[in-house]
Amino acid sequence: MLSLAGLLTSPALSVRWWGGLLCGLLSLVSMGSGLLIAAPLAAVAVLRLVSKISPRRDALVLLLTAFFIGALGTFLRTPTPWHDTLHAKKVAEFLLYAARYLAWPLPQFPWLAPLFWAPWFSLLFLRLRTLRVSPSPLLSLSPSSDFLLAAGTWVLLQVAAVSYSRAGGWGLPASRYGDIVALGLVISFFSLVQLAATFPARRRTFATLATLHLAVVAACIALATREVLAGPLPAKKTESVAFERSVQAFVLTDDYEKFAKSPLPFPLAEWLARIVRRPDIRAILPTSVRAPLRVEGFSEPSELTPPALIQRRTRHHTAAAEWSSPPIPDTTLGWWKIETAGPAFSTSGPSPLRVVAGSTETAITPTRPPLLDQWRAAYLPAPAGTAIFLARSDSSERWLAFSEPVEMSALSYRTWQLTKHGTWLLGAGLFGLLSLPVGAHFALRRPVHPSDPL
Length: 454
What we know:
The chain is α+β, with helices and mostly antiparallel strands. Among the domains are: about 1-80; about 235-275, no CATH class; about 315-405, Sandwich (Jelly Rolls). The chain has 16 helices and 9 strands. It has helices at about 1-10, 15-30, 40-50, 55-75, 90-100, 110-130, 135-140, 145-165, 180-200, 205-230, 230-255, 255-260, 270-275, 280, 410-420, 420-445, and strands spanning about 315, 320-325, 335-340, 355, 360-365, 375-380, 390-395, 400-405, 405-410. Strands 1, 3, 6, 8 and 9 form a 5-stranded antiparallel beta sheet that branches. A 4-stranded antiparallel beta sheet has the order 2-7-4-5, with no helix packed on it. Helix 2 (about 15-30) runs parallel beside helix 4, helix 8 (about 145-165) packs antiparallel against helix 9 (about 180-200) and helix 10 packs antiparallel against helix 16.
């Protein structure tokens, strides 16, 4: 989107134009179908050359840029023959999958697709009419209309690419593909805003249609959310936990035979095992499947309360004692995650477990109140230099248990902290969604000039 905005709404070779080109080049390596951005850029360039409205030099530069991005993207493209079984085999299969995809967030109702995309196709029809008759000079001169048309074309090309590569089996599109087509809903809304700006005499009509469009989209999102929360999401969580355990067990044991028979997040076990075995991949694995830092004095899972952690070594103190660990291996990431359990962590006094690095001591405190039959995670900044555990248990009634530390990046920790404010984030998103018609209303009240952006 940033690339399209920079290249289509800025003079050729200006600072913003170069920023758009940079974003376009980054898209070639940030997503598998990034090269598809070349097609809408070339289409707009040809449209501008034929209509003879924008400077011919800018249109030619845009066309050459589109060819350059397309050629470079084609050169960088990597074939994936192992995905051939997922490809669409029939035209009807492709079209049905595409219609379902365009009907997001309710893909089970493909008839919603033309309803959602009608504003954009109306804008496209009027823009093409300017090649013969100009119904409004605002539409033919505004860079914002070209941006909306190019953005919509890019989304439709993404839909076509996904529909071809994933339509095998006549199934519904996976929810993870909704992020791209969701942009199409935003583009359709602003297409109505553009039409209202183009035809001032019909602003009230288009404003009403934009409000109705937003209300229908919001209702569909609400219905889809309720449906997902009621069934697929809990099932997906259970499936994801099974995937994590399979990958984590393989990371720790390298038992491929057992790994191949386990539930996996990818259909090709050999390919996934080859990737997970790479040292550079293991260095960036998330905490849920990452190998812990090995510390002497920890044992394999036992039958003691709480339930044993899957493939994790722990230490239990069930009698009055003090213990200090051997030096903990050096850490490379910013945070540690340690599982804790036992009534010793529920007291209001000093923590029974600490990490000592030089003259610095860090108490280990679980993030939630401890329970006797469950593990509670504790997070602490990774110590600088050599560190050891210091554990103390006063009696058998106040026992404690803890696991080896697992490294966690600072970004992962901050993201986890951010997710705890999910309710506020949801509220902010809904507020932003509802503010769209309000902003459009005030934007349409001011005089519109041909050179104004959207």
